[in-house]
Amino acid sequence: MTQSVTDIALLSQLTQRTVALVLAGGRGTRLHGLTDGRSKPSVYFGSRFRIIDFALSNCLNSGLNRVGVITQYKAHSLLRHIQRGWSFLHHNRNEFIDMLPARQQLEEGYWYRGTADAVYQNISLMKQHYRPEYVVILAGDHIYKMNYAQMLLDHVKSGALCTVGCIEVPRDQASAFGVMAVNKQLKITRFEEKPKNPPAMPGNDKMSLASMGIYVFNADFLYQTLEAEQTRPDTTFDFGKDIIPAAAQAGVAYAHPFSRSCMSRTPSGEAYWRDVGTVDAYWEANIDLISARPQLNLFDDNWPIHSYTGQQAPARFNQSPNHISNHVDNSLIAGGCVIDSAQIVHSVLSANVRVAPDSRIEESVILPGVTIGQNCRLSRCIIDRGCIIPAGTIVGEDPYEDARRFHRSPQGVVLITQQDMEKLVKAPAAPIAFAKKDAVPA
Question: What is the pLDDT of residues 348-367, one digit of tens each?
Fold first, then answer.
């Protein structure tokens, strides 16, 4: 979006008076074994990233260099990633990415009881140290590129005290979201969390405006609202269920269409935003990256996604005598990988993956440090970090055997974790797999 000289000058001032808070404490239970030892925002994505890298990169690319990351569930992996990869900001310029773990700051000794409570328990820090005029609150578990500065500018120009980032979704699918009714000025007249009958957009009764879990608040209004919420006996301490509906009822909340600030569009021109909260959605978003026309462009230097992967050697392809020839087709291969006389087809390999001779990997997502033995056939898999796959393993050809040994998604994607492999080793001897192709079990 083209901006005037006046807007550019105003944005420079606004971003310096703003703090972004990234909510990164989610458990991500629908990802099953992928989040047994890590929070959802710290799950690997796209060969060299973590999910949280997208929200943090959006902050830096938007000029928001004062960021707090609120953590709770199994945060060690996330803490280590941010310490190693996001510690380059200049503290002497008042730039930072601070970790804000649940510290039971209330006298009652509660952990964070909800998204709103996670912010409330950090109010004293905000007032004493950050002292922002505006607060941007972000979910740390979605894949998208967005200019938060544009949303901040729209917030200030509208005179709102609260602005909600929103995407357009088909009305018959909107019941899975927080949905808002708005007038022609985008003022929110009603906000409902997962309504049975979602309100339609003005002028389009087939679409609804759904919340992205992205909010901009005037800091003083946010503090007052969160403090008042503590006195309500029926509160759930949630932005979507409590805070945003109250702001809408008070007449101070506006909607910000994602199309105004989106920095990555699909080949058809749609704004790209993905919730990768299920095994199927996670697999699809990864595999899409190596399609003929990817929905998300990772090779855009105008809005780069930063991350940390450590120092690694280049990917290496060996050709051992008397084995099949290496073949790589439409795949992402990270540094440190060693592929020895194997076939990699439509797959995403993260750092330091080892593939032994005569193995074939197809339509699969392989996380860092995985070792795949000789003569394996792996199709439509997600293999978690550090797994050791024994020689001769076959996955993706027998749905019944896949479901017996591993988690198999509704769309037939097989998730393999090291815990699964350890259970197989301890189990009584049995064939590793069957090579027949049966119908998918109900």
Answer: 999 999 999 999 999 999 99
Taking alpha carbons only, the member of 312, 370, 374, 314 closest to residue 343 is 374
Q: What percent of the chain has pLDDT over 90?
A: 81
What CA–CA distances, in Å, run from 408 to 90, 345, 430, 440, 441? 45, 21, 19, 10, 10
228, 231, 234, 239: CA torsion to nearest 10: 30
Ligand-binding annotation for 193, yes or no, is: yes
Are 232 and 347 in the same domain? no
Q: Is residue 29 part of a domain?
A: yes
Taken in order 170, 148, 21, 96, the sign of the CA dihedral is: positive
Q: Rounded to whole angstroms, how far apart are CA atoms 304 and 130?
A: 27
pLDDT for 437: 42
Is 272 labelled as part of a ligand binding site? Answer: no
Assess if residue 436 is contained within a domain: no
Residues 353 and 337: their CA atoms lie apart, in Å, by: 5
Mean pLDDT, the chain, rounded, equals 91
Tokens of 386: 């550090």
108 belongs to an annotated ligand binding site: no
pLDDT recorded at residue 363: 98
Going by pLDDT thresholds of 50, 70 and 90, the confidence category of residue 441 is: very low
Type and span of the H or E element at 6: helix 5-16
Contact 416, 387 (CB under 8 A): yes
Q: Does residue 100 surpass a pLDDT of 80?
A: yes
> Is residue 35 scored above 90 in pLDDT?
yes
CA nearest 208: which of 226, 182, 232? Answer: 182
Structural domain of residue 380, as residue ranges?
Answer: 316-426
Same domain? 154 vs 268: yes
